[in-house]
C-alpha cells in the first residue's frame, strides 16, 4: 500500500521524534569534537605559513639606487634583497623587517641611513617576499638569514670596509639580537621593539577561544610549530643571549605606549638590564608597536645615527 504524502511526512516526523534529534545531536557533537581536535593544527599552520607580502617590490620606487642581490642564509635558504652602495669605504647596515613583512617595509630606515653615508642591505626574510620558504621561522631560524647577510657582504670584492651593523624592527629586532650573539662580525645592533622570548606565543597555544568561552587545547601545537619551522621555538630567547653581544654595542628602542603582547615596555627594560656594555636605550613617548620612527622621525634618526657614528664608523 502506497502511503500518501501526508503519511510520509508524519512517518518522518515520528522517526525524528524517536531517533532523529538524538542522532543529529550526536553528529553535531562529533563535529565539534573534530573541530576542537584540529583547531591547534590549523592555528599552528596559519601562524607559520605566509602568503602575504609575496612578489617583487618595484626598485624604481625606492628613492635611492639599489641593485638586486641574492645570497644564502647560513643554513642554505636562498634569500633575495637590495643593496644600496653609498661608498666602498663606508660601513654597511643590514636591515631586518618584522613579522611576515618584506624588504620594502624597511625603506624608511634605509633612506636616512643611506643619506648619512652608510651602505644598506635590505632583504626578504625566509618565507617572505621573493625569498625561499613557504613560511616563517618566528625568530627561531631568521638569525641564520642575518648571518647569511653578513657572509654575503664579507664576500663582496668591491666592499672594502668590512664593518657591519644590524637594525631590526619587531620580530626582526629579536632576530638581530640573536644573530649578533652568534656572529662576532656584527659590530653594533639597533633593536626596535624587540621581544624577550616566544613564551607568550607558546602560552597561547594551550587554550582555544570559542566565542565567549575559552577551552583547553590538545597540547600538540608547540611540537607541530617546531616541526614546521625546523627548530625549537622555545629556544629563541634574545633575553638569554643579549649579554653575549658585549663588548659590541647595543641600542634598544621602544615606544612607551607599545601594547603588543610580545614587546611590552617591561620586556625592553629586562633586555636593557641583561645587556652588557656598551649599551644605550631610547624610549619614544609614543608611536605604538614599531612606530617610533613614524611618530618621532627627527629624534629617531638622531639616536640611531649617533649610535652608529660612535660604534660603527
Protein model, in words:
The strands form two sheets. Strands 1-2-4-3-5-6-9-10 form an eight-stranded mixed β-sheet, with helices on both faces. A two-stranded antiparallel ribbon has the order 7-8. The protein has ten helices and ten strands. Helix 1 (5-48) packs across helix 6 and helix 3 packs across helix 4. The mean pLDDT is 91. It has 313 residues and is α/β, with parallel strands linked by helices. The protein is elongated and about 95 Å long. Helices cover 41% and strands 18% of the residues. The protein has a domain at 59-198 and 236-311: 3-Layer(aba) Sandwich (Rossmann fold), CATH 3.40.50.1820. It has helices at 5-48, 107-115, 142-155, 171-182, 199-204, 221-229, 238-241, 265-274, 292-295, 297-311; strands at residues 67-72, 78-84, 92-96, 119-123, 164-169, 186-192, 207-210, 213-216, 249-255, 279-284.
In short:
By secondary structure, the chain is of the alpha/beta class. The protein has helices at residues 5-48, 107-115, 142-155, 171-182, 199-204, 221-229, 238-241, 265-274, 292-295, 297-311, and strands at 67-72, 78-84, 92-96, 119-123, 164-169, 186-192, 207-210, 213-216, 249-255, 279-284. It has a domain at 59-198 and 236-311: Rossmann fold (3-Layer(aba) Sandwich).
Q: Secondary structure elements and their pairing?
A:
Elements: H1 5-48, E1 67-72, E2 78-84, E3 92-96, H2 107-115, E4 119-123, H3 142-155, E5 164-169, H4 171-182, E6 186-192, H5 199-204, E7 207-210, E8 213-216, H6 221-229, H7 238-241, E9 249-255, H8 265-274, E10 279-284, H9 292-295, H10 297-311
Parallel strand pairs: 3-4, 3-5, 5-6, 6-9, 9-10
Antiparallel strand pairs: 1-2, 2-4, 7-8
Helix pairs in contact: 1-6, 3-4
